[in-house]
Design a protein that fits this description.
single chain, alpha/beta, Spore Coat Polysaccharide Biosynthesis Protein SpsA, Chain A, 2 domains, nine-stranded mixed sheet, two-stranded antiparallel ribbon, 13 helices, 11 strands, globular
Length: 327
Amino acid sequence: MPFISVIVAAYRRRQYLYNALLSVKAQTLPKDKYEVVVVKDFEDPQIDGLIKEMGWKSAYSDVEHQGPKYLIGLLEASGDVIALLDDDDIFKPTKLEYVYNVFSQNPDVGYLQHTFEVINANGVPMPCLAREAPRNIVNVNELKVPWDEVRKHRSYGVLDPVVYILTRYRIFADKNGGALTVKRELFERHKDALAKLSLAIDSFLLASAIAERTSLYFSNEALSLWRYHGSNISTWYVLPDGDERKMSVLYRYYISYGLISRTFFDFYPNYYACLSEEHKLIYLDLAKRLGKPTAGLTPDRSVMLWCCVAGLCLNEFQRYFMAPIRL
């Protein structure tokens, strides 16, 4: 039977972590069926007291990038199933019990994603952001997609397996680490790439699941709470243009999606190359308007053309072809 390791990652943010850990403590799954590894870069009497009380593990990392943090957590983890939890999110009480049952009953599943509810910084529900949550396109609450089905994407005229999943089965199938649980090997077999990953751990793991040819399991059960507080990295677009974090995050997404696109797929360009190019264009446009250096980057027309042929002609690509960015 599976044993679950929950890896909780925090970097320079402690105000939400205690509540995140309390949500793991409150799980209905028996305590002997899961462990918790907390990776953080600070000490806190209340948080450290809870970790000690529960007999959980704590590891130190002052690295901001997601991949190296999860590698450190993985070294401390002993489970064959890995659940992720960001410091600002919350598990609902039945989350790990649900995860345990899915992996116990479906040994071929390597990637599980459920949906989530959105709360604000104070924990108040934000139903207006419900559209940001993953959900099945197929009209079922629980959906298992075997690898043998994913591999047929070209026979349906879809060039990329990720596009096939996102348009046929699941909206936002690679969104939100706190909604993901995966087999350990999705991390283990790609440690070198993980060590270089800055952002997009959720996309990394979906791509890894495809590369490892595992079955996917998608659930409309809201088993976690995603906290929107205005400084979430994934919502970089709400930051003002003059905020230096915005350019930094855009560049890191460009690099991360590029890494994913070249690590897991035997063809290029692909879906994640399109996301990489999209973030590069936004980064270049912002740098131009602010008079900032561009790290020697230039748009890649060949990638954008492939994306448009594949049905991924994103707004930034359309604007580029209509009025190319001049640097």
